[in-house]
Structures are given as structure tokens and as C-alpha cells.
Design goal:
Blueprint: E1 4-6, H1 11-19, H2 24-32, H3 40-44, H4 60-72, E2 76-81, H5 85-100, E3 104-108, H6 121-130, E4 137-141, H7 148-158, E5 162-166, E6 182-184, H8 197-209, H9 218-230, H10 237-246, H11 249-252, H12 259-266, H13 276-293, H14 297-304, H15 308-343, E7 349-352, H16 361-372, E8 376-382, E9 385-391, H17 398-403, E10 409-414, E11 418-423, H18 431-446, E12 453-455, E13 457-458, H19 466-474, E14 489-504, E15 507-516, E16 519-520, E17 525-528, E18 540-546, E19 563-570
Parallel strand pairs: 1-12, 2-3, 2-4, 4-5, 5-6, 7-8, 13-14, 17-19
Antiparallel strand pairs: 8-9, 9-11, 10-11, 14-15, 14-18, 15-16, 15-17, 18-19
Length: 572
């Protein structure tokens, strides 16, 4: 069954964008993304100089003044951050910033399994145990925005003099309650676009530069880009500029540590640049895996390591953590998908099992979203608590959904696309029905239509080339799941001329080549799937695909130019 439909668009807007000098394909894609002719140039801009002033963020002026005072007094600094890629890259940014000015800086990252998320009695005790004496300044990163009581405990029991919180997570309800000396968050910044903590931390670096000029923010922008992509922040406005500029060879060459280069080599990334796909499917999973399976200090140590030989040793351990994570994830995915098919939820997926490792439930939730096209929550069990993560689809703010059924949670928080929670024991058996109902009511209240599988344009086989990839890279890229989706194209009635299937731990790749009317497309298509494979050779199919985000080819440097197949439909 083929349930793909082409996206609608404003034909008048398309013509007006073409009249501005834009190509017909780009004009079509912009019109499909509801970009008006007046907004076109601003939408496409990725000029670093277009970043908004860091002082538009709440309390940025206070935070910068506090830090500058610490620098001038050669004070001591400590960091407490989250254990995921956003928290780890944020901790890397702030610690490298401190080292830039010769400040002593200690870092505490909680263990997902031992301490749990955010500021809580266990993380506070862990921070206290690490510190021999109270620091002059404590940074709380990627958590803390909802922890007024915990901040007070840190002041009184640890004796920290100044506290700066940089965070983007909302807790229950409005979710902002802190008595930190400064709270940097886009949520309290009027008219500010959404940012993750790594992006906010990068803006803090830019703010510090206004007072302490001996600083180059470009040294930190790659970490901000990695955190932004890994945390699934919307790639628009500031985030778009950070990601586009942060993944360039210019920015990567300014990274002081050796860890990122080691991570790239281990991930078989031999290009001098990075792509969103590199972050999402290669780097971020490895960075996250250490915190999921063991302890995030391993990944932090890698990103901060200055010695190439040592970095290469650390990255092997990081990769082994990721391999272990993938095998465990695959097992849970199959079990969770079976539950969903048995229960057949209407609009919201909620699954739980006592045997599921809480370190991988967030990734499993993402896979269930992809498979069932519904918001999904996956719950595991650890240390007497039912804990898990949720992911959402475009148009559904899963944080708002949780607000409407908050009675079943001990605690929860997050943002539109991703949430974390602890479920009350007495609700675990009925939580699936409650969450499904809450999602259904959200659909009705916000008049959300069931998402359809949409593609952007039909392409002839002769247009499947590097020129199109280059044009997309220089205009629409980087992409945003909700507002600027990566373009999907359809090529119809083509014959699969060759096919090969490769399997690895937790993955299967199907690669194939196509031909039509005597014209052979030079480049292969690749898809991670077990649904079909070599039996499609010599069959006539429709292929839905996207172009590679890296289009250049140089000997011994770049991997093969491969097109990403999203779906293959066999013709009757």
C-alpha cells in the first residue's frame, strides 16, 4: 500500500519567489514550508553575524558580571550538569571557558542509574562529595530551572557563594522556580526563539566576550551545534546559525581538544565538516551511550582530552558502550513494538516493563514514534521506581499532554519534543489508557490532523545528481523536523538493477541501484530496514528518498555519495 502524498503549496508564493531570482525547485520547497516571499532571505540566512545579542537572554547581564568578577578575582568554579549530550557539551563549553581564563573548575555529572536526573538529594550529595571546599561560583547546566529548594540547600549545605543556572527544561505546569543569582533561559526572554542549554551556554560565551575580549567564541560553537542537534531543538533562527556555522571545517579546526577528532575518526567521518546526520546517527549516540550504560564522565573526558593518543584509547571505550547500548535497545524495541500492536492505541503510545533498562528507553521511544507516527512514552524500572522518557511528533507538544494528565506522575518535565518522568506505582497499569486519552483530547482541542507521509516533489532520474545536493546544502540546510523538513523526493517506475544487504549488531542496511529508460543512476540508495532486501532486484519500484547532506567527493577523504531511501514501494 502506498500512502504517500505530495505536499501542498501556495502557487502564487512560488511564482513570487521565482521572480526574486530563486530556482524553481527551491521556490517550490520554500512555498511548501509556508515561507512567504518577504521572509525568504531571512529564512535562508545562516550568517554568523545574524546571531541575536546574547543579552536578549534572561539574566545574561547578571551572569556575565558574576563570571567576570570571578575571573578578576581568580576564583574557583564548579559545574553540575545533566548526563546527556546537551548537558555534556554544555559542561564542555563552560569548563573550557573557565580554563581559557586560568580558572580552576571541577565538574560533577550525575549517573543516570545512581543519581537520576536533575538537582535532587542524590545529585546534591554527589556534588558535595566531589567538592573539598565550596567554590566561588557554581554553574548548574541543563537542569535547575525548577529547583528553588534544591538551590537553597546547595547554598546552605555546600556554601556556594554564587550560582548561575543555564537551562531550557520546563517542569510541572509553568515549571520555572529558582533563586539562583542568574538564570539564563530562553523561556523568560521575550520574543526569543527556543534554544537548548548548549546553545544558551554558547551565547553566554559571546556575552563574556563583550567584557573580556581575549576570547574566541568560534572555539565553542561546534559543541553548541552538537548539543543543539542531539537535543532535537528546532533548527531555526539562532539554532540554524549555530548549526550551520558550528559544523564547518573552520569551526571544527578551532576546537582545542583532541576528543572530537578521535570521535569523528572512530565514527568513520573523514570529511573536514560534519552534518546533522553525522551528529544524530554517529556522534550523539556515542556521547549519550556512556551515560545510558555507565557514567557520562567517560564522554566528558573524551571531549576535553587534549592528547591524541589518549583520546583514541578513550573513544574505543565509548564505542563499546554504544555497541552494548544498541544490542539492548534492539531487544527492547521489539518487545515494545509488540505491545503497541497488541494494544492498538488511538493517538498516544505508552508501554512499560520492569525488565527494561531506563538508560535506553528514550531512544526506544524515538523508534516507536517513527514506526507508529504517534507520541510515545517508554517506561523502565530501576531502584524501586518506574522511570522513562517520551518523544513526540510534529504538531503535538508532549509536555503539554503530560500537563493534562499530571496526576499519574511523581515528577516530570521536558519540552515540546521530549520529556522525562517518574510514574506513580498505582498508575502504571492504567497509564497507557490515560496517556492515549490525553493525546486524543490534545488532537481534538488543537485540531491536529493525523500526520500523513508527505513528499516534496517528483524527480526524473537525470536530476538525481550532486548539483541538486549542493543546491540544497547551500540553501535549505540545516533542516528542522517541524518547520523546515529535509526534502523528500519521489522517483517513479524505476527498475532495481543491483542490490546488496549488510547486517551488523542491531542494524541491517539495504543498498540498491536503479535504472529507467536506459539511464542508470550513478549513485546508490541506502536504507536501514529489514522489511525488504535483495529480492527487489529487477523489480519495478517507486523510491522516496533524500539527498546526502554532504555532497562533495574527494579521494581518500569522503565516503561514497549515497542517497537516503526513506521508502520503497513495489509496483503491481
Amino acid at each position: 500500500m502506498n500512502d504517500w502524498i505530495i505536499k501542498e503549496f501556495d502557487k502564487v508564493a512560488e511564482k513570487e519567489i521565482i521572480a526574486q531570482g530563486k530556482g524553481k525547485l527551491l521556490a517550490r520547497l520554500l512555498a511548501q514550508r509556508n515561507v512567504t516571499p518577504e521572509e525568504t532571505d531571512n529564512f535562508l540566512t545562516t550568517d554568523y553575524k545574524k546571531l541575536t545579542s546574547p543579552f536578549k537572554l534572561n539574566d545574561m547581564d547578571k551572569a556575565v558580571d558574576i563570571f567576570v568578577d570571578i575571573v578578576n578575582k581568580n576564583g574557583t568554579v564548579a559545574i553540575s550538569a545533566d548526563y546527556d549530550a546537551d548537558g555534556i557539551t554544555s559542561a564542555t563549553i563552560i569548563s573550557e571557558l573557565c580554563e581559557n581564563f586560568g580558572l580552576k573548575c571541577k565538574i560533577f555529572l550525575p549517573s543516570r542509574m545512581e543519581h537520576g536526573y536533575g538537582l535532587n538529594p542524590r545529585t546534591i550529595q554527589g556534588l558535595k562529595d566531589m567538592l573539598k571546599e565550596p567554590p566561588d561560583l557554581l554553574f548548574v547546566l541543563d537542569c535547575g530551572m525548577n529547583n528553588k529548594d534544591e538551590i537553597e540547600i546547595i547554598r546552605n549545605e555546600i556554601g556556594v557563594k554564587k550560582i548561575i543556572v543555564i537551562d531550557h527544561h520546563l517542569g510541572e505546569g509553568s515549571g520555572i522556580s529558582t533563586n539562583a543569582d542568574a538564570l539564563i533561559t530562553w523561556h523568560l526572554s521575550e520574543g526569543h526563539s527556543e534554544m537548548c542549554t548548549a546553545g544558551e551556554a554558547f551565547q553566554f560565551v559571546r556575552g563574556v566576550k563583550t567584557k573580556l575580549p581575549n576570547l574566541n567564541p568560534i572555539e565553542f560553537i561546534t559543541y553548541a551545534a552538537i548539543g543543539t542537534v542531539a537535543d532535537m531543538s528546532p533548527i531555526v533562527e539562532n539554532n540554524r546559525i549555530i548549526v550551520k556555522n558550528g559544523l564547518t571545517s573552520y569551526a571544527i579546526n578551532h576546537v582545542a581538544a583532541a576528543g572530537l577528532s578521535a570521535l569523528m575518526r572512530n565514527s568513520r567521518i573523514f570529511a573536514p565538516t560534519l552534518t546533522q546526520e553525522d551528529i544524530s546517527f554517529k556522534l550523539a549516540p556515542k556521547i549519550n551511550a556512556t551515560g545510558r550504560m555507565y557514567h557520562p564522565d567517560i564522554a566528558l573526558g573524551l571531549l576535553k582530552e587534549k592528547d591524541n593518543t589518549t583520546a583514541d584509547k578513550i573513544v574505543k571505550h565509548v564505542a563499546s558502550c554504544n555497541d552494548e547500548r544498541k544490542a539492548l535497545q534492539k531487544k527492547i524495541e521489539k518487545e515494545a513494538a509488540f505491545m503497541v500492536k497488541e494494544n492498538e492505541p488511538t493517538h498516544g503510545v505508552f508501554v512499560a516493563d520492569k525488565e527494561w533498562h531506563i538508560g535506553v528507553v528514550g531512544i526506544v521511544a524515538s523508534r516507536l514514534v517513527e514506526e507508529f507516527n504517534k507520541p510515545a512514552i517508554v517506561i523502565g524500572y530501576h531502584d524501586g521506581k518506574w522511570k522513562g522518557s517520551g518523544r513526540s511528533i510534529p504538531g503535538i507538544n508532549v509536555k503539554h499532554v503530560l500537563d493534562s494528565c499530571s496526576e499519574m506522575f511523581v515528577a516530570y518535565g521536558g519540552h515540546a519534543a521530549a520529556v522525562g518522568m517518574q510514574v506513580k506505582e498505582e498508575y502504571i497499569d492504567k497509564a497507557a489508557a490515560i496517556f492515549d486519552k490525553a493525546c486524543t483530547e490534545y488532537y481534538k482541542e488543537h485540531k491536529v490532523e493525523t500526520p500523513k507521509k508527505l513528499y516534496d516533489a517528483n524527480l526524473g532520474v537525470k536530476l538525481i545528481n550532486m548539483d541538486i545536493a549542493k543546491a540544497l546544502r547551500e540553501t535549505l540546510y540545516p533542516y528542522c523536523k517541524d518547520l523546515n523538513q529535509e526534502p523528500i523526493f519521489k522517483v517513479s517506475d524505476v527498475t532495481v538493477t543491483n542490490a546488496e544487504t549488510k547486517k551488523g549488531p542491531g542494524w541491517t542496511i539495504f543498498k540498491f541501484w536503479i535504472s529507467k529508460d536506459g539511464y542508470d543512476v550513478e549513485y546508490p540508495f541506502k536504507i536501514f530496514t529489514e522489511k525488504f532486501g535483495n529480492e527487489l532486484k529487477d523489480q519495478v519500484v517507486d523510491v522516496y528518498f533524500s539527498f546526502p547532506q554532504l555532497y562533495e567527493l574527494k579521494p581518500n577523504m569522503y565516503s561514497e555519495f549515497e542517497l537516503s531511501a526513506i521508502d520503497v514501494i513495489k509496483k503491481d
